[in-house]
Amino acid sequence: MITILGLGPGRPELLTREAWEALLNAPDGEVYVRTRRHPTVEGLPPAITVHSFDDIYDSTEKFEDVYRQIVARVLELGARPGGVLYAVPGHPAVGESAVEQIRLRAAELGLPVRMVGGLSFVEPCLLALKVDALPGLFVADALDLAARAHPSFGPDTPALVAQLYSADLASDVKLTLMNQYPDDHRVALVHAVGAADERVEWLPLYEIDRSPHIAHLTSLFVPAVERAGSFETFQNTIARLRAPDGCPWDKEQTHQSLRANLLEEAYETLAALDADDPDMLREEMGDLLLQVVLQTQIAIDDGEFRMADVIADINAKLIRRHPHVFGEVKVNGVDDVFKNWEKLKEAERAGDPEKKRNGLLSGVPAALPALAQADTYQSRAARVGFDWPDVSGVVDKLAEEIAELQAAEGEAGQTAELGDLLFTVVNWARWLKVNPESALREANARFAKRLGHIEAAAKAQGRALSDLSLAEMDKLWEEAKETL
User: How would you classify the pairing of strands 186-191 and 218-222?
Assistant: First the structure.
């Protein structure tokens, strides 16, 4: 049996009576503590033998391996005839992700688990910080947070991070949080909460790993940001717009009525990318996100699906199609990734009666711009080996298509040959690793700027553009090419 006991936040007198009785009746008079670096350990019954897992903390390089080793050791001890008493700071069910792992693994092994509660670190932290938990306080574990690229909580509600036991761990936690919060967001380190040397240290987020006071009884309080920025808050805003007392226009929208808006915002986002303007891109990404959330809210209102379904589906698909990242598959470079991707999609089609009827090019939107559609078709064909051995074959094919276009007669024949020529140009762009759609858009932009230069020059001379001779326009064009 595994008994998991909470030692309380900091002082021995905060132990519960149930915890004290469990300690007095510990198997073989032993208790295994997650860390000795806790004031309550010194106040445990004198007859009890104390073991700790501090050696794991001190010798393990990767933070994510610390709890894995502790869990394995506790399960091993729990399988003994007498079982094990494992003690953790605070309450075993508050901010103790290793405890949750122990409970899940123990259930798989058929090991019973008894939980003995204790006063958690949360209550004294709230008292020290003079804040309330009701605005949606999220409790996180520092080791779990450090292993993530993004926090598991949104920026619109406060969070309390437990087990911030070292400067190195604080550094990793800081980097995760700075992907969501401003670098200078004011946070608080709470040291030795509930103990005589309790200390609250307010400082900018980017400085938390520089604190000289970080130790095993350090927690981190992250207040909500002043400007709402969570995905859930945005969803609520959109839902409010479509509520009975919301906006008349938003309430009337359907999936079909918003098609043009979605396409327009996608093109405006591309324009921001082409302009290489981060501020413009941020704004356009927001407009594009609006279309996604609004379309999903319409689906929610109509009982079709929910945002959680949208995110769960794409998240599962990404994990399933990246076994070289989330599984054991080994790949050597991008080509292997593409080939494996097509095999996975083929397997998905084989397992789905609907998808089984679809071919390699199924799912490529018919409404895609022609250049982008051609590029996608060719890329998919190349993934299964239907491609030129090298780029020279594409260049020869281009010359062949030019000759065929020159020889073509009639509108229908010329249209067909011109299409083949453009299709081959797209293939050449793919071999050059150039996006043909972007290349043409950039060429269009250059043409517009240079023609604008010619128009401005004509206007400066008091003449209309049509009044200029071809030679004059060519001269101005060459001038424009030097600067635009």
Answer: antiparallel
